[in-house]
Every structure is written in C-alpha cells, then in structure tokens.
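Researcher: Last one for today. Full complex below.
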Amino acid sequence: MKKQNRLGSRLLIGLMFLFLYAPILLLIVFSFNAGDSSAVWKGFSLHWYGKLFQNRLIMESVYTTLLVSLLATAIATAAGTFAAIGLYSLGRKKREALLTVNNIPMMNADIVTGVSLCLFFVAFFQGWGTFARWFNDLQSVVELPERLVLGFGTLLLAHVSFNIPYVILNVAPKLRQMDRNLMDAAQDLGCTWMQAFWKVMLPEIKPGIVSGALIAFTMSIDDFIISYFTAGSASSTLAMTIYGMTKKRVTPEINAVSTLLFLSVLVLLVLSNLKEVRAEARSRKGAAHRSTALEKLGQRIAEPRFRWVRRGTAAALACAFLFTVVVLAKETGSRPVVNVCSWGEYIDEDLITQFEDTTGIRVNYQTAESNETLYSLLKSGGADYDVVVPSDYMIGRLIQEDMLDKLDYSQIPNFSLIDDRFKHLSYDPANEYTVPYAWGTLGIIYNTAMVEEEITSWSALYDDRYAGNVLLINNSRDALGEALLYLGYSVNTTDEGEIRQAYELVADANRRGVFQGRVMDEVLQKMEGGNAAIATYYAGDYISMLENNEDLAFVIPEEGSNWFVDAMCMLKDAPHQKEAHMWMNFIASTESNLMNMDYIGYASPNREALERYPAYYEELYGEELEPEIYDIMVTPPEILERCEAYLNLPAATLNLYNTLWTQMGVN
Amino acid sequence: MKSRLSGFAVPYVVWMALMVVIPILIMVVYAFTTSEFEGTLENFAEMGVYASVFTRSFRLALIATLVCLLIGYPVSYWMAHEGPGFQRVAMALIMLPMWMNFLLRTYSWMSILENNGLLNQLFRNIGLVDVYNQIAVRFAADPALYKPTDYIPIIGTSGAVVLGMVYNYLPFMILPIYSVIVKLDHSLLEAARDLGADSRRVFRKVILPLSLPGVLSGVTMVFVPSVSTFAISRLLGGGTQLMLGDLIEQQFLGGAYNPHLGAAISMVMMVIVVVCMVVMNRFGEGEEQAVML
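Model: Here's the assembly. Have a good evening.
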C-alpha cells in the first residue's frame, strides 16, 4: 500500500472510532455532572459516584447480572463440554442433525427465543400447579409448592440454554482435531477412563473450553431481550433496570456505574496488552473445517493475539466472583418480604427505608409502565407481586376477572383516614378490595416558550401547526379517551362507531406527522429539555417537570378530561398477605401521604394530608406554596365536575381498543 | 469406548428438546389457537394489517446491514494492512464498546439526537438549520404554510433507528470480515500480481471472493438482531414507527395483551429469517467455506 493511501484510510478508521466512542465519552463526561441532566453541564462533581453505592435498585441489578452470568457460564461450560464429547462420538448423520438443532438458538432472533421460553415456562407452571394440587391432596407427607413464577431460576435456565450452543461450537473443533486413538492408547497403557479423560482429552480441548466459556460469559452479560422475557418481576438485570429507567429519567448513577465498568475493562486491557506488546503472534493456522461465524469469533479470541481479550475477561470473571461471594455472604440472612409493583417515580423512596427499618420486612419494589402493561405482566404469569397500584378502570377489570383478593380492613386501621370521596367508588362499590393511593387528572402540558397562544382544547394535539412537536401518550385508554372527549363523546362509550372515529382522528394526525413520538414516562425528560412543545400527562408529573423547566404550563381542556384514582390492591393468593396489609396500612398514614404528596406531586386521598399539605410545604421549604400549584395538584371541585372517571369496559370494547391501538403507527 | 461416550449426549439431547424444541412448538401452538385454545388461522389473517410493519422492519434492517457493510468492509480491509500493533489496538477498541450495555450507548445517542440535543445545538451554531429550513420550504406541500423550525428533526425518524442499528451492530460486521481478510494467503495475491493482474483486479478476482464468507457471516450477524430489535426503535424511533420487535413485545408485555397474535408474528418472522439465511447460504455454497449451518 502507498503512503498517502494509508493516511487517508487511517483518517477514515479514525472517523469510525469517533462514531463508536462519541456517545460513550458523553456518558462518561456526564457521570461527573453536578446537575442531574444528561444534556446540560452544571459543573464537576463526584456526587453521583457516592449515590451509586446507596442506590439499591442499581446495586442489586449489578449483582443479579453478575451472579446469573457466572452461574450460567459455569453450568453451560461443563454441560456443553460433555455434550460436545458425546456428540463427537455419535455417527456423522446423527451428529449433524443435532448440530443443526444446536444452531437454532443462535440463528433465531433473540426475541423469538425469549418469547418461546416465556410461553414454555408459563405453560410448565400451569401444568405443575395442577400436578402439585393433585399430589398434595393425595398425601400429606410432602407439600409441593403449587405456585411457581418467573424469577431468578427461569432467568438462569434461559441463560444456560442460550450459552450451551456457544460452548459446543468452540469445543467441537478441538475434539475434531484430536487424534481419536490417543484415548484408546492411554487406556491400553493402563489408565482408567477417567484418568485418560483428565490427562489426555482435557488438555487437548482446553483452549476450546476456555474460549467457549469466555464467549458465553460475554453473551450473558450483554443480553437484554431474553432476560426481559424470562426474568419475571422479582429479579432484574442491569440491562433491564436501564431499560426501565430510559422511560423516565436515567439517573446519572447509571452513567457512574457504566463509567466504572468501562474503566475497569479498559485498565485490564491496557495492562495485559502492555506485557505482550513485543510478543508477536505465532502462526495463525485457521481450522480447516467449515466453521460458522461465531465459531470463528471464538477461534479468533482463542488466538494468541487475542490474549488480552482472554486475560481481560478472566480478570473480569475473577472480580465478578469475588463480588458475588461478598454480596452472597451479606444476603444470607433471609427476611420477610413484600413484593410491590407500582409506577415509575411514584413513591418517596425514604418511605421504603422507613418501613423496612421499623418492621424488618424487605420491600421488593418494582415498577410497571402503564395499567395495560401491568395487566399483561399479571396475565402472562410473569409476576410475583403482593401489592399492585392500578388505576380505577383496571381495578374494575381485575376484580371482574377474579385476580384480586379481598382485604382485611381490621389490619388497615389507617383506612379510616381516607376521605370518603374516595371510598366506595364505581370500580369497587362495596370497598372490599382497595386502599386509595393517589388521585389526579389528565391534562395538556405545554411549553410556553414554544407555543405562543394559550391552549384550551384537546384540538392542539391534532394541529398541524405543531407538527413534529406533539407527544402522544402511549396507552390506548388515555390516547383514545382524549380524542373521544374532543369529539364530544363519553370516555366510556362502547359505541364502535364513536371509538373508530376517535381512532381515525389520532391515526390521521399520526400519518400527517403531528406526533414526534408515543411516550409514557419519557415525557418528563422530553418536556423538561424543551424537545417537544405539547404533551398530555398527569397533573402530578407536571409538578415535577415544572421544577426543571419553568416555561411549562398545565391545562385541563374545556372539553373536560379524565380524573383517576390509583389504589393499592392485593393479588389473589398473594404469598405475603400479612406483610401486604402492613405495607398498605403504613402507606395510608397521614405522614406517609404528606411525604408522598410532596415527592410525587399527586394529590393524596388522605383527608388530613390534603388539608395539612400547604403548611407542610411551608415548613419544609420555608416558602409559601403557590395556590395555583395547589389547585393543579388537588383539582378543585368545579373543575372535577368537568372530568369523567374511566370505567371498566366490556370485553368486546377492550378488544377493539387493543386492535386499534396496535394498528396505530402501522401506517 | 464409543458407546460409553455417546451416553454423554443423552442429557444434552433431552435438554435441547426441553429448552429449544418444545418452547418453539409451544409458540407454534399459540400461533394457531385462540385465547380459549381452539384451533384457528385468525392470528395469521389478522397479520395482514401489519404487512407494512414487516416491510418497514426488513427495509430498515436491510439498509442498516448495507451501511454496516459499506463502512465495515473498507475498515476491515485497511486494518488488515496495518502493522500488528495498530491491528491489536484497533481490534481492542472495536470490541471494547461491546462490554458496555448497548442500551446505555443507545440512550446516550438520544441526548445527542434530540431536537434540543448536542447535534442540533451544533447545527444551529453553524447555520445548518437555516439551510435546512430553506430546503424544506421548497419541498413543503404548501410553502406558505411552512413554519421554519429551529432544529433538524432527527430523533423519531427512521434515519435515527438505522443509525442506532449501525452503531450497535457494526462490530459484528467488522469482526468476521477482518478475521477472514487477515488470514488470506499472501502467496495467492503475489501469484495474481506475478501473472499480471493490477491491484484493482487482484482485489476483484482474489480478495473479494475469498472474503465472501466473512461478509456473509457479518451480514447475518447484523441483519438478524436488526430486524427484531425493539429497544432501539423505541428509544430512537420515538415509538411512532413500529417495528416487528415492538409489535411482538406489545403483544406479550406491552399495552395490547394477545400472546397468540404475538406468537404468530414471531413464527412468521422466524420462518422468513430462516429462509433468507438458507437462500444466502446456497448462494455462498460455491465458495471455499460455507458460513452458517
């Protein structure tokens, strides 16, 4: 190659690296940001590194990730090696057929593997439940658990099953290269089979085993989609935690944890590379057999020039192992638990700590994205919750489908503090299932710096003048409800024509490019950053957006809106009923409600808390709470009159909603 | 000895049957049943509505694969011609991002591509936004109604989704191509030159055909995850442009609970991908090495 060419090519390679590293550098830079934005620099600080180690959600998911990857790697390496030995001794026909099956998990898109495993686990659990009930009825010596759910066990199984093929693909070529007579010779010379295995076979195939294990570990660490479908609710990996956060606000602690991970890998690489800068690669003879892409990757990693990869990963493995042992040692004492599923940033996390400190019960706090998502989670059998906090209409549906258990109100004395306005509502007329958590209204949030006029109607959502600047709320009930209100219909209509008309209104605006995106909690960062002009969301979240962007305004349109109550319920056959009641009672107290109201910005259903909040605010911040803000939080009765609550809809209408909603964005 | 060793294969066969074959069969059962588990083909009939999602997913994945190839091939080729030190560092740098979670890197792109993001701030400062407005007004359906913006829309477009795919899967293209090129037998190239071929001809007649297996595996490793992604389209596409992955995720854990439809879509996607792969392998069969299967 000529010199000037080389300069040009190096420049282009450099550009590619700029492309690869620009976002990573940005992440690292903003981990040192004093503010909590990922776009606005507010000065240097190490603050987020300190907070990282106190953030239980992140630390636990790092731990789950490392533990599952390590265990899966260890199991898959052992199992895969023996499977490869077994395969190798089969006839050619059989071996090739089995290797084709072995390729399936690697050829398949991750989402197909994840989905099929999820369906399989759920089907198995149902079968198991029936069997266990029958077996327990039959005898009383052994009591089998009747209810199995997705969790760490299924996550581990899934990881093992997608790791084994990689191990086999790396071990198989080494077996093929080995002289078949070696084992026989060793045994003829007096070795037992086991001795021959340890002394002859293992050393021969060791490089394949090592590179197989390393690839398996890397794949496990990096996986998101398969874990997402098989982990259920109780355990989440780092990738899942990040995915959950990207919907709301990715806290800079995530930047900090990724910077730490990145830097430790980098340091390991540099160290191991420095040692062998002068040690040149030996002959790189490639395997002569037909090899697949991944096998090649494995072989490349096994080559001498890739020693840094092996060393790096080996060191990472060692660190991960140490970390796991330490955490395991800490975790051994088992405590009573309550599993709670709520919405993102819907609780003052100090409340969780307070509850844990006073009762000794561990709170496993998870979040779902929307009522519909929660319903899917519960239905798919993926959830293991005790307490959920759905909205009114979804509670109606859950009760109707017999998915909730009645509460024992004698264990919830604080229920008496709840304002009567929020008891005996249409979704739970006899009030047997629910303890109200918060309430509020849906409205339009807009950026006064980007929208000149005052918005008073839902029509703004479908207006071409704001094309590309409107955020559509990403759940069918609210998105179509807004359109129904605009058209002058009831949000609870079951008339197919009316619903279709509302759908057309939204779908047409979507086709015209009015919507920049369909968002739920992402709305916070989008609106705060001035990246969109108009959105619809809940009053409480507006209050927290206002703290970061003073230009935002909130309005309940003249056509009326939706008002909602979110209430705590206990799922049918919840495993921790006593703890669930204690949690609900704790949350219903006036103190908890005041703290929550201040933190999440949603109105409390607790009578005292509603009255005392302005005084509480003044005491806390030393300034008066503006009455307009209080009115947005706690919608005054004259505006509430214009608002309608969602009711549970009949199955046919729900199906129509689902079908229409899936079609949205298709064209 | 043989019979004893082949016993090792038994647990593996059972495992594969349990964890690979049966789950896929269950998925197929779901695809062909209603929620009451009565046989039906309705799930497939219903899918007609989503034809555009299929075409969009395959189109975007194809574009992303092509872009990866266009960047990946020359980069791998040039890198293979650098000194060993350069190669070692470059390979390390290409693999390094893979140890950072892909969601994080994609999220970071969000803050770059937003309407108010870093890239648009840059565009505004160098006056590119004005240029964009002048061009856009000319292409607007009704120029009188066109309202100038103070940003160039990037996030929420299919361009942003393709960018996310290229960014995340580029290493999967470079690695296999590079590893094939770097192993090429140099005596072949010398022989071609000795026989009078100029460098362009050497590339076309010797290097390109010999590197084809690497290209094929690179294409597979980029295309399959691209066509089925949902996190990338969700974060960078803003959710207005559904992809197959989104559609499937919606049916299982998203807003529209219908695992039967989700299973049917997954199944169709699986079949199409497998057929594509088989066809491609036939195409590569004539070469020295077949790549997949």
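Chain A touches chain B through 127 residues (CB under 8 Å). The first strand of chain A starts at residue 337 and ends at 343.
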